[in-house]
Design goal:
Radius of gyration of chain B: 28 Å
CATH class of the largest domain in chain A: Alpha Beta
Order of helices and strands of chain A: EEHEEEHHHH
Largest sheet of chain B: 7 strands, mixed
Largest sheet of chain A: 5 strands, mixed
Distance between the termini of chain B: 68 Å
Number of strands of chain A: 5
Number of strands of chain B: 27
Structural class of chain A: alpha+beta
Radius of gyration of chain A: 15 Å
CATH architecture of the largest domain in chain B: 2-Layer Sandwich
Largest interface: A-B, 66 and 74 residues
Shape of chain B: globular
Number of domains of chain B: 3
CATH topology of the largest domain in chain A: Ubiquitin-like (UB roll)
Oligomer: heterodimer
Distance between the termini of chain A: 49 Å
CATH superfamily of the largest domain in chain B: Aldehyde oxidase/xanthine dehydrogenase, molybdopterin binding domain
Helix content of chain A: 25-40%
Number of domains of chain A: 2
Shape of chain A: globular
CATH superfamily of the largest domain in chain A: Beta-grasp domain
Number of helices of chain B: 16
Strand content of chain A: 5-15%
CATH class of the largest domain in chain B: Alpha Beta
Strand order of the largest sheet of chain A: 2-1-5-3-4
Helix content of chain B: 25-40%
Structural class of chain B: alpha+beta
CATH topology of the largest domain in chain B: Aldehyde Oxidoreductase, domain 4
Number of helices of chain A: 5
């Protein structure tokens, strides 16, 4: 039995504690926005937030979590797809196939939480998600655009 | 707040919908990205391509698959352009392969590869849109009792010009559906396009940002079980035995089944349970005849082919042998290109439900018709009793087009559990070990210069693997695989960019037992490295500027010259680059487009490469969506440079050694150069955009590395090379 807090809602789940968070999200909670790709914590497709920090959910056993840890998935990033990154991504048509994008957006969102105006070097160091389609340059522009738009809205 | 208890391990629901109505096939209800199926009953179609709802919603049917390359939006733009509809009302839907079969392939080919999505279907999809428009206008004219010639259509509104009277498409669509279409229709001059040719936003972005987009791996069906699979890791091997009893009692396990000759699968309530049990399953393989095959043995066999007598000629003019013998100076080099995996982010998967009467498959595929054929074969049923629902692809790159091994396996598993839907999902490790690999080749090049430094002859011998011999042997021409010569042919979509007076390019076919496949860019990937790096070698041997040397060979190749000149001008070729930064050029014709690139790189004293900037030009003839072409060009550098920097599958004991991204890395954002894209459509032809630029990515960087270090890298990937200056 595992207990989780996901997207603000507590869950009690009948599952082997060794099961990675990724698979509980996908198979028990039906939150399939978080993707499986490598299973060894490398590619970042499974990135979620645990207490606001980016985590690779494919290597986090659910037994290591409880309702005290707040898990946020792509489905819970914003109620209506209006997170500044989601808006910037829309404006720049960032995704191609889109499979890595939930993880990419969650990683970028966590980066912005700790560093509200990241430089290109900060983005390079902070974003280690794999995208095989090759959206990197639009991802970079998207992060800068989100920062810019957030600031201009904040000052207006 | 109350705690929700989730006690069952499988939740019986359909993603995003509760509408599981009775009596109709499940697939009709799944609201996947581009909707997978047509309404069973509902608004009649205007024609095969267009349905218009009473509320003016325009549903455009798209047969090719969307896998990130933007074809879905581009094709919709072409239909909408001729339809003269309101773009804000456009939605898209995938017709199913079964519907296509039943309607005599009314939507043409479903195959989505070879950068063919738009260039292979622009004519008939535009005609589809134009014919629908004619019917809508005719229906309005009939209703008004006026001559059709007096009516015009724009933005889904039909106007009778003399009276100014108007009606909407949604109001006349039902009547239009009853009319007989004309046999011919005139298409717009692309110069008059208003939707096509414009940088419109993609139609499929919103759901990809919120986790709502359903990919094949995300499919959920009522009562569905999950399967994990292992096939014999040694190519050509078989499954000898497995001990199902050892895992049968593990949580969630429902079944352990043999899959074909070479694989075993565990079926469980959840995929994680299936995978966990499979990891514990004792399996014995019959490793077969290829256990002695290694990268070294393959390389030696290919090296022998570089000087072998038997070879298929791909391009020949003049007398290369005599020209080289008479040359004042000759240059010789041998290059080698490794196996690579597509490594789509979404591993292979398919969901199947089989009964004695019907087989249905939900899968990400680049070719729905091929998936249907595979499903029917595996199901032991006529194709008419099978159906494939195309689900969004988490990357394709050629892996999911010609090969539907994952469909065959999913059906084979489902067939052992009649009536139960089973989703088969490969692990990354399975995906890496059972690829359809970018083939391996080597090339020996000899070039001859006269005493003024002019190129008088060139000889290129390619030795190595044919994709067609393995995948489509019927496409061989008297045993020759002409696809091996992509980018080097005398004419056509993959013509050589140069006029060389005495030329011989041939191929010694050597087919190791590692299954090859079409890998985004296919054979131009290595051929452009061979040709473009060697042309650079010749230019330096001749003491000539690499741009000037190329230009001297390109007077009969104006479009190639134009893209090359465009990048040279924009990058500032001939003017100094930033301190420590060096430039390299490459040009290629691929998939009917003309592309060129100039890379700016630096290599530090520890041999560390930094790719700073790439200027790239593309002439695709017509540019249907310029901002998506830019996205494809940028993405092509990620794909091409990942291959150059890291891409290598080595073989040992008859199997691939790399099983995940730890040993098969892909480029990250920190390695990505700035890319400046020039889209320069010259009109009069239709070229592809998803692949061509990959061809110039690697050679432009390699030529820049030579400029920086004096080192010629001829074996790949770069990670195996010491780049410290020579």
């Amino acid at each position: 039995m595992a207990t989780l807090n996901v997207n603000g809602e507590p869950f009690s789940i009948d599952v082997d504690g060794a099961t990675p968070l990724l698979w509980v999200l996908r198979e028990q909670l039906g939150l399939t926005g978080t993707k499986y790709s490598c299973g060894i914590g490398l590619c970042g497709a499974c990135t979620v937030h645990i207490d606001g920090r980016a985590a690779r959910s494919c290597v986090v056993p659910v037994s290591s979590l409880g309702t005290a840890q707040k898990v946020v998935t792509i489905e819970g990033l914003s109620p209506d797809g209006s997170h500044p990154l989601q808006r910037a991504w829309t404006e720049l048509d960032v995704p191609q196939c889109g499979y890595c994008q939930p993880g990419m957006i969650m990683a970028a969102a966590a980066l912005l939480e700790t560093n509200p105006n990241p430089s290109d070097a900060d983005i390079d160091a902070g974003l280690t998600n794999i995208c095989r389609c090759g959206t990197f340059n639009r991802v970079r522009r998207g992060i800068h655009l989100a920062v810019q738009q957030k600031r201009s809205r904040g000052t207006s | 707040m109350t705690t929700r208890r989730v006690a069952i391990s499988r939740r019986d629901f359909l993603i995003g919908t509760a509408a599981a109505g009775a009596g109709l096939s499940l697939g009709l209800y799944l609201p996947f990205g581009p909707r997978t199926a047509l309404a069973a009953a509902g608004t009649p179609e205007v024609n095969a391509w267009v349905v218009i709802e009473p509320d003016d919603t325009v549903i455009i049917r798209i047969a090719r698959s969307e896998m990130g390359q933007g074809t879905l939006t581009g094709l919709a733009q072409l239909v909408a352009e001729e339809l003269e509809c309101d773009w804000t009302k456009v939605k898209t839907v995938y017709p199913t392969p079964g519907q296509s079969l039943a309607r005599n392939r009314v939507w043409g080919s479903f195959s989505t590869g070879g950068s063919r999505g738009i260039r292979g279907s622009h004519q008939y999809v535009r005609e589809g849109g134009a014919l629908a428009r004619v019917l809508l206008v005719e229906a309005a004219a009939e209703a008004w009792g006026v001559p059709i010639e007096e009516c015009t259509a724009a933005d889904s509104v039909i106007m009778h010009r003399p009276t100014g009277r108007t009606t909407r498409y949604g109001e006349v669509a039902a009547a239009a559906a009853q009319l007989v279409p004309p046999l011919q229709v005139e298409l717009k001059d692309p110069q008059d396009w208003r939707l096509a040719g414009k940088p419109l936003k993609r139609l499929d972005t919103a759901e990809k940002l919120t986790g709502q987009q359903v990919f094949g791996a995300d499919v959920q069906l009522p009562g569905m079980l999950n399967a994990a699979i292992k096939a014999c890791p040694v190519f050509g091997g078989a499954l000898a035995a497995f001990d199902a009893d050892a895992v049968r009692e593990l949580p969630g396990v429902r079944s352990v089944v043999r899959v074909g000759e070479d694989a075993v699968a565990v079926v469980a309530d959840t995929w994680w349970q299936a995978k966990t049990a499979l990891d514990k399953l004792p399996v014995t393989w019959d490793e077969g005849p290829n256990v002695g095959v290694s990268s070294a043995s393959i390389a030696q066999w290919l090296a022998d082919g570089l000087t072998a007598d038997d070879a298929f000629v791909g391009n020949q003019s003049g007398d290369a042998k005599a020209a080289l013998q008479g040359a004042a100076k000759t240059v010789e080099a041998v290059y080698a290109y490794p196996y690579q995996n597509h490594a789509t982010m979404e591993p292979m998967n398919a969901t199947a439900r089989w009964t004695a009467e019907r087989c249905e498959v939900w899968c990400p595929t680049q070719n729905g018709e091929a998936a249907l054929q595979t499903a029917a074969e595996a199901a032991g049923l006529p194709a008419a009793q099978c159906e494939v629902y195309k689900i969004h692809l988490g990357g394709g790159f050629g892996r999911r087009g010609a090969f539907h091994d994952f469909v065959r396996q999913a059906v084979a598993i489902a067939r052992q559990m009649p009536g139960t839907p089973v989703k088969l999902l490969w692990t990354r490790e399975e995906d890496m070990l059972h690829g359809a690999y970018h083939p391996t080749t080597q090339a020996r090049l000899v070039g001859g210069l006269d005493d003024t430094g002019e190129l008088v002859g060139l000889r290129m011998r390619i030795s190595g693997q044919s994709i067609l011999a393995s995948v489509r042997p019927a496409a061989l021409k008297n045993g020759a695989d002409m696809l091996v010569f992509q980018g080097l042919l005398p004419s056509g979509d993959h013509a050589i960019s140069y006029s060389i007076p005495n030329l011989l390019i041939d191929h010694a076919m050597r087919n190791p037992p590692v299954p090859p496949g079409f890998w985004r860019g296919v054979n131009v990937n290595q051929n452009a490295i061979y040709m473009e790096c060697f042309i650079d070698e010749l230019a330096h041997a001749a003491g000539r500027d690499p741009l000037a040397f190329r230009r001297g060979l390109m007077s009969d190749h104006p479009r190639s010259l134009a893209v090359l000149n465009a990048v040279a001008e924009k990058v500032g070729w001939g003017t100094p680059a930033a301190d420590g930064v060096h430039r390299g050029l490459a040009v290629c014709n691929a998939f009917a487009s003309y592309v060129a690139a100039c890379a700016e790189v630096s290599v530090d004293d520890r041999g560390r490469l930094k790719i700073h900037r790439i200027v790239a030009a593309t002439d695709p003839g017509y540019a249907v969506n310029p901002q998506q072409i830019e996205a494809q060009v940028e993405g092509s550098f990620v794909f091409g440079l990942s291959a150059l920097l890291y891409g290598e599958c080595t073989v040992r004991g008859g199997r691939v050694e790399q099983e995940n991204f730890d040993t098969y890395p892909s480029m990250l954002i920190g390695e990505m150069p700035k890319v400046e894209t020039i889209v320069m459509p010259s009109g009069g032809f239709w070229g592809g955009v998803g692949e061509p630029t990959i061809a110039v990515a690697a050679p432009a960087v390699l030529n820049a590395i030579f400029a920086a270090t004096g080192k010629r890298v001829r074996r790949f990937p770069l990670k195996n090379n010491d780049l410290r200056a020579a």
